[in-house]
Design goal:
13% strand; 6 strands; alpha/beta; single chain; six-stranded parallel β-sheet
C-alpha cells in the first residue's frame, strides 16, 4: 500500500467510528478462510458517474472517475495484502468509447493513464483490450507503463481498457486464423482439428487462470460482456455500493461468500 493511503487509513482509524470499523474489519479478516481465497479476482468497478452526481453535483464527472481510480488503487493493495495472485480491473469498455462524447472520454482517459502508471510502479501490469481504439498518445503511455512493469514479481494486475467481450473473441479468432494460416493450415484442416484450448491461447489473458470470483458494484446484476469466455465457471458477487464507496469490509464479505460456496465447474 502506498504511504499516502497508509497515512490516511491510520488517521481514519484514530476516529471513534474509524476505530469501530477497524475492529469489525479485523474480526471479519480473522474469520476468513485464507486457504479458500480465489487465485484470480475480477472487478466491474461500476457506479463512478452516479457517485459523482450524488456527491459532487456541481463538479464535472471526472471527479467520480478520479474517486473510482483512487479506490481501484486501494483495492489492488487489499488484494496484495491477502496474497491474491491475479486481479482484473475493467475500467473502460468499447461501448463507453462509442456512447460517450469526446468531452467525457478525454478526462476519463487521463485518469486511466495516470492509474496505470501508478500501478506499474509497484505491480506487474498488463493492459487487456484493443489499444488501437484509443488516441495514440494514450495508447503509447499505456504500452510504456506495461513494458516498465513487465519484469516485476508478485501480483499480476490486468487493466481492461477499450475492452469488450465480443471484441476479445473476435480478436482471438482473427489471431488464431492468422497463426494457422502462417503455418500453412487450410480452413478445412483447422475446422477438423480446432479445440477449445486453441481459442483460449489467443485471448487477451492467454496463459492466465480464469477468474474464480467476479465482483460487480452499484447494484447492477449483469456481466455486460465482461470476460465472456473466461467467466464460464466463475463465481459472481454483486454489491449495492457504488464503486468509490466500496469498502474493505465489502471485499472481505465477497471473499467470505466465495469461500462458503461449493464450486462444481459445471458438473
Amino acid at each position: 500500500m502506498s504511504l499516502g493511503l497508509r497515512v490516511r487509513e491510520a488517521l481514519n482509524r484514530l476516529q471513534p467510528l474509524g476505530f469501530l470499523y477497524s475492529a469489525y474489519e479485523t474480526q471479519l479478516l480473522a474469520q476468513l478462510d485464507r486457504s479458500a481465497l480465489p487465485r484470480h479476482v475480477a472487478v466491474l468497478a461500476d457506479g463512478n458517474r452516479r457517485w459523482a452526481r450524488t456527491n459532487a453535483p456541481d463538479q464535472p464527472l471526472v471527479v467520480g472517475y478520479q474517486a473510482g481510480a483512487d479506490k481501484l488503487k486501494e483495492f489492488v493493495d487489499w488484494c496484495a495484502d491477502l496474497g491474491i495472485g491475479i486481479i482484473t480491473l475493467w475500467v473502460l469498455s468499447t461501448e463507453n468509447l462509442t456512447r460517450s462524447g469526446a468531452e467525457e472520454v478525454a478526462p476519463l482517459l487521463t485518469v486511466i493513464d495516470n492509474l496505470v502508471a501508478d500501478l506499474a510502479q509497484s505491480y506487474r501490469v498488463q493492459v487487456v483490450g484493443d489499444l488501437n481504439l484509443l488516441p495514440e498518445p494514450i495508447a503509447d503511455d499505456l504500452r510504456h507503463a506495461q513494458a516498465s512493469a513487465s519484469g516485476r514479481s508478485g501480483m499480476h494486475v490486468n487493466v481492461a481498457i477499450a475492452y469488450g467481450g465480443r471484441h476479445e473473441l473476435r480478436d482471438a479468432v482473427r489471431s488464431l486464423l492468422a497463426s494457422e494460416a502462417a503455418k500453412g493450415t487450410s480452413l478445412d484442416e483447422l475446422a477438423d482439428t480446432l479445440e477449445i484450448d486453441h481459442i483460449s491461447e489467443h485471448l487477451y489473458t492467454a496463459g492466465q487462470p480464469d477468474p474464480d470470483l467476479i465482483i460487480r458494484t452499484s447494484g447492477e446484476q449483469r456481466m455486460s460482456g465482461f470476460l465472456i469466455w473466461q467467466s464460464a465457471h466463475s463465481e459472481f458477487y454483486f454489491c449495492e455500493a457504488l464503486w468509490p464507496d466500496f469498502r474493505k469490509v465489502d471485499f472481505i464479505r465477497a471473499l467470505r461468500s466465495y469461500a462458503q460456496r461449493e464450486r462444481r465447474y459445471g458438473r
